[in-house]
Amino acid sequence: MTNIIKHKRSDVDGRVPTTADLVLGEIAVNSFNGKLFIKRNQNGDESIIQIGGEITVGTTPPQDPVEGDLWVDTN
Predict the structure, then answer these.
(1) By the 8 A CB rule, do 15 and 28 touch?
(2) Confidence (pLDDT) at 6
(3) CA-CA distance, 16 to 71, in Å (whole number)?
(4) Are 8 and 26 in contact (CB under 8 A)?
(5) What whole-number distance in Å separates Cα of residue 74 and Cα of residue 71?
(6) N or C: which end of the chain has fewer CB within 10 A?
(7) CB-based contacts of 36: which residues, under 8 Å, 6+ apart?
(8) Percentage of residues in the chain with pLDDT exceeding 70?
């Protein structure tokens, strides 16, 4: 069986997808922050899980996460 992995990406600092931005099985990548996001559904309760990212010493703190519509569908 073949599985197709769909993903969306953003290069905006602090951008975090909402549950409405992703379908189950789809991933989102923030290439600016080096973070990966997936959508989780536990008994009907949907949430976004963040995977990865790096800690950088000597830079200004990141801005508050921005949710919204700047995710680009790459498929």
Answers:
(1) no
(2) 81
(3) 9
(4) yes
(5) 9
(6) N
(7) 27, 28, 29, 30, 50, 51, 52
(8) 68
Q: Is the pTM of this model over 0.85?
A: no
Could you tell me the sign of the dihedral formed by the alpha carbons of 19, 24, 12, 33, in that order? positive
Neighbouring C-alpha atoms within 13 Å toward the C-beta of 27: 11
Q: Which long-range contacts (CB under 8 A, 24 or more apart) does 60-64 make?
A: 62/13, 62/14, 62/33, 63/13, 63/14, 64/14
Is pLDDT larger for residue 16 or for residue 53? Answer: 16
**Token duo for residue 55:** 């800690």
What is residue 70's predicted lDDT score, i.e. its pLDDT?
Answer: 55
Structure tokens that stand for 20 in this block: 């409405």
